[in-house]
Amino acid sequence: MRETAWMATPDEVAADFDGVLEPDGVYDEVRLRGDDVVRADAEGSRFLDCVLDTCDLTEAKLGRTHWVDTRLDRPRGVGTDLSDASLQDVEVSGARLGACAAYGSSWLRVTVRGGKLDFLNLRAATLTDVRFEDCVLVEPDFAGARLKGVTFSGCVLERPEWSNATLTKVDLSEARLLAPQGLTSLRGATVSRVQLIELADAFADQLGIAVRD
């Protein structure tokens, strides 16, 4: 990931945001805090070199937004709409998000570090050079998604859905996989030998193979 302004500390960002987010807006080098984004309607907006500091994203309408060189510190909330959004050189840390709709979105050089994301909908999304580190993903939905160069280091994935996903150089070997679905779509992924043994029954069940004791 290249060195860009998003790596700066919040105090180094140009100015605190003072106003109301609007659709198709352009927000450059601003810092948003707390409730600045709760239930906001900013569809189609662009966020460049921004910092979102402990923002509540509850029911925020952020579909078709573009995020570049931006950092989200400890975002929280439920019902965030990021459908068809574009994220490039973005870092998300300490998130506590539920039911985030990011289907059809595009992620390029994104890092998600720590936190917990419940019911993250990434159906038909495209993830390229994305890192998930030390986070918990509860029922993430990757159905029909395209993942390339994606790693899950120190993560827990509970009931992840992989049906019809296309995987290229996806590393799951350092993750804990609990009751994964759509295992027949994991072609192109790397798992550890221990994981393979642990998933043997699930593979057999989803492939329709009867196992005799």
Detailed description of the structure:
- There is one protein chain.
- The chain is mostly beta strands.
- It is built from two helices and 19 strands.
- The strands form two sheets. The chain has a 17-stranded parallel sheet that branches. A two-stranded parallel ribbon has the order 17-19.
- The longest helix is centred in the C-terminal third of the chain and has 8 residues, at 200-207.
- It is elongated, with a radius of gyration of 18 Å.
Structural features:
213 residues, mainly beta, 17-stranded parallel beta sheet, 2 helices
Brief sketch in words of this structure:
With 213 residues, this protein is mainly β. It has helices at 193-198, 200-207; strands at 15-16, 26-28, 30-33, 46-48, 51-53, 66-73, 76-78, 86-98, 106-118, 126-128, 131-133, 136-138, 146-148, 151-153, 156-158, 166-168, 170-171, 176-178, 189-190.
Secondary-structure map with pairings?
Blueprint: E1 15-16, E2 26-28, E3 30-33, E4 46-48, E5 51-53, E6 66-73, E7 76-78, E8 86-98, E9 106-118, E10 126-128, E11 131-133, E12 136-138, E13 146-148, E14 151-153, E15 156-158, E16 166-168, E17 170-171, E18 176-178, E19 189-190, H1 193-198, H2 200-207
Parallel strand pairs: 1-3, 2-4, 3-5, 4-6, 5-6, 6-8, 7-8, 8-9, 9-10, 9-11, 9-12, 10-13, 11-14, 12-15, 13-16, 15-18, 17-19
